[in-house]
Amino acid sequence: MAGLPRRQPPSDLREAILHVLVETETHAGHLDAVRELIDGKQFLVLD
After folding, report:
1. C-alpha dihedral over 17, 18, 22, 25, to 10 degrees?
2. What is residue 34's three-state secondary structure?
3. Are 16 and 10 in contact (CB under 8 A)?
4. Residue 25 falls in which region: left (phi positive, over 0), alpha (psi -120 to 50) or beta
5. How far is CA 14 from the centre of its chain?
6. Residues 6+ apart with CB under 8 A from 36
7. Count of CA atoms in the C-beta half-sphere (13 A) of 21
8. Higher pLDDT pick, 19 / 40
9. What is the pLDDT of residue 6?
10. What does the mean pLDDT of the chain come to?
């Protein structure tokens, strides 16, 4: 696509694992937000 920066592949295993962890955590957060919208419960509330 024009105008979008190209992603470079991870340069080492550490960078690849970090990328997978960040992406997994991001998607899990999105799913948790959707679940909260559906059932209205918050499981982790820090006061």
Report:
1. 60
2. helix
3. yes
4. alpha
5. 17
6. 42
7. 6
8. 19
9. 74
10. 81
